[in-house]
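so my prof wants the structure for this chain in the tokens format not the other one, which i didnt know existed until like an hour ago. anyway here's the sequence
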Amino acid sequence: MDAFYASIEQRDAPELMGRPVVVGGRTNRGVVAAASYEAREFGIFSAMPMAEAMRRCSHLCRVQPRMSHYRNVSSQIFTVFREFTPLVEGLSLDEAFLDVTASVKLFGSPALIAAEIKQRIHAETGLTASVGVAHNKLIAKIASDLDKPDGLTVVEPADYEKKLDPLPVHVIPGIGSETLKRLRTIQINTVRDLRTATDRDLEPIFGRYTRKTRDSAAGIDTRPVVSSHEEKSISAEETFDTDLSSPAEMDRELLRLTERTASRLRKAALGAGTVQIKIRRADFKTYTRQRSITPPASGTDQIYAVARDLLKSWLVDNPGAKIRLLGVGGNNLAPARQSDLFSTDIKQGNTVVDNTVDEIRDRFGTSSVARARTLDRRRLG
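here's what i got, hopefully its the right format
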């Protein structure tokens, strides 16, 4: 999808159309979650500190994220995908691989399928997508980025060298900023440079991945499209406008984040076998603490009790610390189990409150109901 979060906000608020828009926190403490193409003209990209984005564009429009809304739109898009093939490998809310090998007899060539998918997405959501069509995932991914926004690029095997060779080397997966610096020192700037480089040049940088990296530069990729992935972790975190300094503030925010994580676990019908908290102090030093729980849990109170104990233990070792970022996550995920109807252990399963809150938020939005303990009493009239 093209600038997915930002495009949804522009679609929903026509006054934002044609203007530079970023999705992210309303203050300068956070980071950019998504940038519209108008914002990108100012050199603004996702993960950039909001303060830097505002420095680059003083008239930037900032919109707070609406993740539940983005997930609903994503669900519409993935429904379109699955009408053409069951082999859909989602990479995120706005990106997926589709294997249409078995679909061509029914729907026509891959290029025709790609064009129809783009048209259907636009008709149902008002949004644009860019599609790459190729014989493997690597080339399809690269092709999807060659003609954004609203592009459709087909790359046949015979054209791999012609299409890939002139591209900057960072289009190859796994080449980050540090690797890019090392490649530039030996004059490797394009995909062709990488494809034709010697082992002597590449092995000090890529080691045992040298052959795989050169294969990628040649357009070789044998990975299949995998239609489902097990989620390894579910978490929520937040960078605060003002550092948290009191235990009461920390507890309140910890509970809010726990609610978000626990709700996502329940939606995925998963339980967390390990609860983890992430803490970033005002001096940017970051800590994690975790604890295993049995059986795996998805109840808000269950996860909060563990997370709160972890935070209390950390505060003992860091007295007087101020917190810039806080996060709560669940790892070692397992399918949620039905509680024993005759068990007297009240910690099993989810509470009626959890289920009721989930239903209300699904229907009326995430801000429609909140636990009293998550409210800042200073802001209540």
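also thought this was worth mentioning. The chain is about 40% helix and 20% strand.
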